[in-house]
Amino acid sequence: MRVFNFSAGPAALPLPVLEQARDELLDWQGGMSVMEISHRSKGFIAVAEQAEADLRELLAIPAGYKVLFMQGGATGQFSAVPLNLSRPDARADYIHTGHWSARAIKEARRFLTVEMAADEAASNYSTVPEQASLKLTHGAAFVHYTPNETIGGVEFPYIPATGDVPLVADMSSTILSRPLDVSRFGLIYAGAQKNIGPSGITVVIVRDDLLGRARPDTPSVFDYRAFAEAGSMLNTPPTFGWYFAGLVLRWLKRQGGLAAMAELNRAKAAALYAAIDVSAFYSNPVAHNCRSWMNVPFMLAKPELDKTFLAEAAADGLAHLAGHRSVGGMRASIYNAMPMAGVAALVAFMREFERRHG
């Protein structure tokens, strides 16, 4: 029996895509597994080109941007961004809103001077800063932010305005969940394991004028221009992950694209938050104006029941609801592949659990 998988990542994948990958695992276009094909073959190059074309179509990526399929996860980009976009004596603005922005800041400090454009420590990272409160540095190499903090469940309701300074975003937990104005960004990066596909691929969308700025000591596998010139095949790519990402992108198009996904994701989040807010037994710590659509943390009024909640939820086919070890409680990640039926099942379970234990 398949369960409803609320994991933050690697996360749930669309069942039709899993079924297609299963069918092609042993025989993809003539007697070979899709995992055995050469990345230099005409067949795989067609897969790679189609995946990029579909991503460009879904996100309406303007001309003048390169799409790269890299490795190393978002964590690798914490280093790649300053190595490609700044000199050692440069300053860059970072907006600190939680765990993953903190990780990006810590890594960036190895390569440049980090200026804190905002730090939401006063709210225990349950808010995002207002645009007017951002302290942007004149002459900064770039401004970095995390639109959706996977662990804390905090999400920006706006795109920061940074003037002529390139805006860089770690969109691992929000990419493809709704339409996006890519032209507002200098660079977007995202690990695949939330809304794109299995872990192993990292998508980077970078404006052309930001290529060719890498420091001389930048490893070639992190050099955006070198990767772009090689068609994202500077070395052997994770071919299965790239193929699978392409299947997910085609699935998204069949669902009606990102406008349709936004409508569904908004409805899923609203249903879950409504169940939490109406209850005295459950609570969500995030300010209402910056609650994530993708990652919904919640606490029980009786923390001693956390293990019971998780065990009974798992028995009901509701998997991976434990909050991150750094914060505890619960977390439901409801990415694109989570159907409304999964959210409805979780809400019904929560109500019954409260009835019995509240």
Describe this entry's structure for a reader.
- This protein is an alpha/beta fold and 358 residues long.
- It folds into 2 domains: 15-254, Type I PLP-dependent aspartate aminotransferase-like (Major domain) (Aspartate Aminotransferase, domain 2, 3-Layer(aba) Sandwich); 256-357, Aspartate Aminotransferase, domain 1 (Alpha-Beta Complex).
- 34% of the residues lie in helices and 16% in strands.
- It has 9 helices and 14 strands.
- The protein has helices at 15-24, 42-59, 73-85, 99-108, 224-229, 239-254, 257-277, 306-315, 340-357; strands at residues 4-5, 65-70, 91-96, 113-119, 143-145, 148-149, 154-155, 167-170, 187-191, 202-207, 282-283, 295-300, 318-319, 330-333.
- The strands form 4 sheets. A 7-stranded mixed beta sheet has the order 2-10-9-8-5-3-4. A 3-stranded antiparallel beta sheet has the order 11-12-14, covered by helices on one side.
- It is globular and about 60 Å long.
- The mean pLDDT is 96.
